[in-house]
Structure to design on (65 residues):
C-alpha cells in the first residue's frame, strides 16, 4: 500500500520542526528514568498528605457530631 501511494505522488511521512530549525532541532527530549522517579515520588507524597488531611477532617467532623 505504501508503494502504491508513493507511486501516485502521495507524500511520505513527515517530521515537523519549527521554521528555521536545523536538522535535529525541534525533537522532543524525553525525561530520564531518574527524573520520572523523582516526579512520581513527589506526587506520591502529595497524594498521601491529601489523604491524611481528608482523614483528619473526617475525624474532626465525627467528633463534633
Amino acid at each position: 500500500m505504501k508503494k502504491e501511494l508513493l507511486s501516485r505522488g502521495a507524500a511520505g511521512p513527515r517530521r515537523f520542526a519549527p521554521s528555521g530549525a536545523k536538522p535535529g532541532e525541534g525533537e522532543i527530549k524525553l525525561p530520564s528514568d531518574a527524573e520520572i522517579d523523582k516526579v512520581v515520588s513527589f506526587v506520591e507524597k502529595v497524594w498521601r498528605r491529601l489523604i491524611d488531611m481528608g482523614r483528619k477532617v473526617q475525624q474532626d467532623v465525627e467528633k463534633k457530631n
Remarks:
- The chain has a mean pLDDT of 85.
- The first helix runs from residue 2 to 7.
- The chain is about 60% helix and 0% strand.
- Helices lie at 2-7, 33-64.
